[in-house]
Amino acid sequence: MADFVTKAVKVYDSVMENADPRVAGWFMMDSPWPSLIICLAYFVFVALGPTIMAGRKPVEMKKILIVYNLAMVGMSTFCFVEFLLSGWLAGYSLGCQPVDYSDSPQALRMARVCWWFYFSKFIELFDTVFFILRKKFNQVSFLHVFHHGIMPFSWWFGVKLVPGGFGTFHSMLNSFIHLMMYTYYGLSAMGPAFQRFLWWKKYMTSMQITQFILVTIHSAQLLYMDCDYPVFFVYWIGLYAVIFLVLFAHFYIKTYLARPKAGGKKSAHTHMANGKDKSS
């Protein structure tokens, strides 16, 4: 135990010593503890929430969900556009792309959108909170909780050490996927009158899978070239992409390709891969 603590302290010291000085003083960036505590509180809520709500009626949240989902469309659109304008449409390479640690307007713009992307992952924890308050417990799946629970804390390290460059490829794609998803959720929350606009639900999971295939390929190429980008983050992003590629592919097969069960009905997996269904 003492050895583990010693190693943890060394890792912490190394992170703080190698931190990007430009993010010093930014909200929640001076220490990993706020991010870690929020993520741990999230897991506690996931564990205890269903028990707390067991004897209570589901909370009616239609108006809140409409406002929340449309606000997240705005947030995701902002991040997607900023990732493009500060990097991926402004000279970034699909191959090796180091982080620009300068104080140039473009480099600072990229660092800022990295922080906003990180912060948006905390807001997205409300996806789960709303499910539990509405007693949609079946939608709080392992995939949903794992995806939501690890992103905020892991992105703290991304913003602290590498706010830009190669690693923002996956966040740029993720922002686009999320603006599409929250558009879907916002329309579905508006009620039956909008159901005819939701025919593309099945393709959302296909887009998720495509996203992780692209991120896996993008990460794999750096294993075969020299690049001034921390190799740890290359492995971390690649591993993340592979894990979620497998999980989303399994979800897609189970939900859309599985043979009907006896009685002629498909397995009742109506929610999307991140836990949202058309009744959200």
From TrEMBL:
EC number from the UniProt entry: 2.3.1.199
Reaction catalyzed: a very-long-chain acyl-CoA + malonyl-CoA + H(+) = a very-long-chain 3-oxoacyl-CoA + CO2 + CoA
Enzyme superclass (EC): transferase
One Pfam family in the UniProt entry: ELO
Membrane topology: Multi-pass membrane protein
Entry similarity comment: Belongs to the ELO family.
Name under which the protein is recorded: Elongation of very long chain fatty acids protein
Organism, as annotated: Littorina saxatilis
